[in-house]
Structure formats: C-alpha cells, structure tokens
Specification:
alpha/beta, Rossmann fold, 2 domains, 8 helices, about 40% helix
Length: about 260
C-alpha cells in the first residue's frame, strides 16, 4: 500500500481505521512503511467496531485533512480507510465534509470490491475520490482460467475476491497432492505438497514456491478503483504489484483501462 501511495504521488496520508487487532496492526505497519519512504502520516482517526454514528469521527478527519491540504496541496494528500463493511456508511458521512471530497481515498482488502461501494451515494463518493485499494491476485488480460473465474462469479453473484480464488487453488493443490501420494506420513505429505505447488499449483494462480513455514515466497496484489460509467459505478483494475522472489525488487505496473 505504501508503494502504491508513493507511485500515486501522495506525500501525506491521513488514516482512518477500525480499532481491532486487524485494523490496528494494518494501520501501524502501513504507516511505518509509508514513513520510511519519507511520507508524512498524520494521527488520523481510530473508531470502534460496531460504531454507527460517524459524524464526530468524520469531522475530526476533515480537520486533519484540511491541515494536510494546507501543508502539501490537495493533489498530494490521501485518506487511507482500513475498514470492513462499514466503509459505505463512512463514505456517506464523509461526502458532506468539504475537505474529504477534495482528496483521493484509498482502501484495503477489507473493503475493496464491496458491492456497497459501487451503488448510491457511497458509490458516487468513491468514484469522485478515485477510491483505490489492493486485493490479493494477479491481472491477466486474456486469462486461460477466465471460464473458471466466470463460473465462480456466476455462483457468487459478484466479483470473487482474491482470497476466494486463492482458497480454490489451495483446495485443488491439497486434493491433487493427496490423490497422487500414497502415504499418510506427515513429513512425506509436506514434501509432496511443496512439489505439487511448485510443479503445477492450482488452475487459477498456477505454480507457487513455498518457504519453510509453508507460506508463499511470492506476493501479488491487484489494485482496484471505483470508476463511473454511464451513470453507474464499477470496480476497475488499475495496477499490479508483484514480488517474484525475496532477492528481487518489487514490480509495479499500471493497467490500461
């Protein structure tokens, strides 16, 4: 996220985040990473999960964004929203605040691809502020797995998120490992799982190399933005961020709409 903010020309970010262990940790890590790149991070606003009245919180955020605009200019200021489903209600409240409509807004994997952010007042606000955030996954201009993704989309009635697709691949890899490995020995199954993941992986993301803890060695994030099209709002892929190996620098690529 910090890498994207820098690439977008943001010099100062004002975070607003959900006050639970997930939100607190994500805000802390993203803020520290952005600051290491010489970015300015204001105090921002922390809210309690389950809160429904965002009036006071938005007023505080508006004041801080106003200060950031005065110091850096509105083109270089961004609001970073770390939330879950409450994102739409926060945006509806923010739409009534002058400073908050003047800067770009950014999100996280907890609110990117929400249907509530491409409808009504929240959708209008998200489009006007170019709301953009990352989701685990990769962009393919002509994906060989397009038919599988379409079947998942049809079953869900919405665009599947990156975790859904990764879960599909994970189950596929586990099943393939088990059917091709005639053993119940855990150590042998681990070796077989690593081999299956590296050789073929799942049908959506393909082969993947794992580290000693069984986690992916690579990282791939697709950035989505809300855009307006013929008086409707939609999620559009705008950039791809990849780490292909621990010893290689990250790759960042804009996606032409």
């Amino acid at each position: 996220m910090a890498y994207y903010l820098k690439a977008d020309g943001i010099a100062a970010v004002v975070p607003i985040w959900r006050g639970d262990i997930w939100g607190d940790e994500l805000e802390k890590l993203a803020a520290a990473s952005f600051a290491r790149g010489n970015g300015t991070v204001l105090d921002g606003v922390r809210y309690e999960p389950g809160e429904t009245d965002y009036t006071g919180m938005v007023a505080d955020l508006d004041v801080q964004v106003g200060r950031a605009i005065a110091a850096h200019g509105k083109e270089k200021v961004g609001v970073y929203l770390i939330s879950l489903d409450e994102a739409a209600a926060i945006m509806e409240a923010a739409a009534k605040a002058k400073n908050l409509t003047e800067v770009r807004w950014y999100g996280c994997d907890g609110n990117v691809l929400l249907d509530t952010l491409v409808t009504g007042d929240a959708g209008r606000f998200a489009a006007e502020t170019k709301f953009t955030g990352p989701e685990f996954g990769q962009y393919e201009r002509a994906p060989a797995n397009a038919s599988t993704v379409q079947k998942i989309r049809d079953a869900l009635g919405r665009q599947p998120d990156g975790y859904s697709l990764a879960s599909y691949d994970a189950l596929w890899t586990v099943v393939m490992t088990r059917t091709q490995t005639d053993t119940t020995d855990v150590s042998k199954l681990k070796i077989a799982l690593e081999g299956t993941a590296k050789e073929s992986g799942g049908p959506l993301f393909g082969s993947v190399e794992l580290n000693g803890a069984g986690d992916r060695l690579t990282a791939h994030y697709l950035f989505w933005s809300v855009s307006a099209r013929h008086e409707t709002y939609t999620w559009t892929p705008v950039a791809q961020y990849d780490i292909w190996a621990a010893d290689l620098p990250p790759q960042f690529e804009r996606i032409d709409a």
